[in-house]
Amino acid sequence: MMTDNPRQPGSLRQAWLVILLALLYGGALAATQTTLGPRIAENQRRETYRVIPTLVAVDGAAKVQPVTLALADGKKQEVFRVVADDGATAGWVLPAHGQGFQDRIDLLIGVTPDVATILGLYILDQKDTPNLGSLITEEPYLGQYRGMPTDPKIVVVTSAPTTTCQIRSVTGATISSTSVAEIVNRTIESLKTPIRRWRAENKP
Amino acid sequence: MDTFVTIVQLAIAAAVINNFVLHYFVGICSFLGVSRRIDMALGMGLAVTFVMAIAGLLSWVFTYYLLRPFAPLPAWVWHMVGGDPGVTIDLSVLSYILYIFVIAASVQFVEMYIRKFFPGLYKAFGIYLPLITTNCAILFACLEIMKQLQDPTRLWGLGEALTLSIFGGLGYTLAIVLMAGIREEMDRCDVPRSLRGPGISLIVAGILAMAFMGFAGVDRAIETTFTVLMKK
Amino acid sequence: MSSSEPTAMERFINGILPENPIYRQLLGMCPTLAVTGAMKPAMTMAVSTAFVLIAANLMISLIRRLLKPHLRILIFTLTIATFVTITDRFLAAYLYEMSKALGPYVPLIIVNCIIISRCEICAATQGPFTAFCDGVGMSLGFALALASLATVREILGSGSWFGIMLLPKEWPHWTIMILSPGAFFALGLLLGLANWISRRRQEAAARQANEPY
């Protein structure tokens, strides 16, 4: 007790610098956040929105409208509806993700308004082996998906495809290649019915 | 069942596939510094695991309730002071500062607790505890948890966060103990003079990293196995 | 250390080669290994670390007379964490792709031992100008080390340097060099090379000193 009491004012005297610095730094951080925050948010938004119209390949200025759909298992999922100039649906862009070879793969799938054909694929994020698994982000592999029917399911083969529902895997990266196809199959399967229901309800 | 598979996958990914030391290169300083003898390495590894678990738990709590966008606590305060409900309060700019203090506090707490209740254990790895505050592996675990919480499509629960920190710590222990075992043997080897010390340790770590690359894809195989088992 | 503290110029020179943070002091290994797969991320990291190091050194040096011994580390950490947050936000706002590629390694600058050791060794005892020179010297040394490692790894691993193709298309990419094992191998061998060069110079100097006899 004897030692505690005189320490009380002393500790404040010792800590004033810390408190002052904390306030100063807090101010600096608040200033940084207010100046740069909107720009960062814009960067994050643009990252997804930039590729959406190109995936569906519409001419002219296409509008992107986020739509939240209820899935069969009760979960909600946001998808993007690309609206052409005349107000009709030009296509849908579905965000999807799943386990790749190394880490999670994040991608966007563009499909026709009736979800019958794939219009394009874009890999947002993957961490698979450089020069090997990472080739799934490139045109020779991704381009194969363009124009593919969503029914029956996409199958990955290691030789030249013989039917329309086959994709040739990247040599040496079969797992990465199959992962992408599985993610696409799974996402389209779970979203096909909700999108068609939305279309029936909203009659765009 | 689904959650169980996710947790198993996550544990294996954190411990061996994306080993903190050999894949993410965090905690290299202690990995090279405290890996001369196996018992020391084990002590350090367990101390790191312990602190990482506590820091992971605390940083999940802080991030989930306070620091992520749409966090409940700041939103409630904002609501109480009558702020515009359309504005999202995002305090994530404070995360790094908070994490570093969470780590420092957990180290202090662990040190006090062990000294009081497990004096034997304290003798064994008490000396490593102060070193841990600047161990990047722990901050890395906090940052991973933050990354998962900031993305609404991931939004980890406490279980996932704890799995990552505990198994990440165990992976660190595994790597540092393996390294110590190899270095003990290497004392009897004729290493070129210029490479002695950290040089050869780094090359050995490279070989270890190469060996650990063989684990890639195991988590996917587990997912497939479980799906097949579920169907039966 | 008390009688003859290094001058600003000595601090500057020391940071670059004689006390190089990576090759001599073996500090700050995590970013060195993690971001040197290519030159661009390595140089972004070098500039970010330089900013934090110089700013923290200046700040600590300005308030050095007010520091209490037991609150010292707390203040260092607080200062470094603040500057790192500012750097991180700045990168996210203006170099978004790079900030995504560097990921957690930008915030990990907080626990980069180089910065805290410079605050402790130099900034807490010497004036702002010396601390500034020390920060610049150390940053240059760090950048040099990152550049050497990234050059080796990017040229062997991708055949390019700063994204510019140097080697012919037929070059078989040593993908292992841009993966984690390559980082360890490259740094281990470069460390060996640095030791070998400095030992040869020492031996040469010793021989010269002995010759007159």
Strand element count of chain B: 0
Q: Compute the number of helices of chain C.
A: 9
Spans of at least 5 consecutive residues with low confidence of chain C = none
Instruction: Give the SSE string of chain B.
Output: HHHHHHHHHHH
Form type of chain C:
flat
How would you sum up this structure, described in words?
The complex is a heterotrimer of chains A (204), B (232) and C (213). With 204 residues, chain A is of the alpha+beta class. Chain A has helices at 4-56, 139-142, 174-202; strands spanning 63-70, 76-83, 89-99, 104-111, 118-125, 155-157, 166-168. Helix content of chain A is 42%, strand content 24%. The radius of gyration of chain A is 25 Å and the shape is extended. In chain A, the strands form two sheets. Chain A has a five-stranded antiparallel β-sheet with strand order 1-2-3-4-5, sandwiched between helices. A two-stranded parallel sheet of chain A has the order 6-7. Chain B has eleven helices and no strands. Chain B has helices at 2-17, 28-33, 38-67, 72-80, 95-117, 119-125, 129-132, 136-150, 158-186, 198-213, 218-231. The longest helix of chain B has 30 residues, at 38-67. The mean pLDDT of chain B is 86. Chain C is mainly α and 213 residues long. Chain C has nine helices and two strands. Chain C has a two-stranded antiparallel sheet. The chains are: A alpha+beta (204), B mainly alpha (232), C mainly alpha (213). The interface between B and C is large, with 40 and 40 residues.
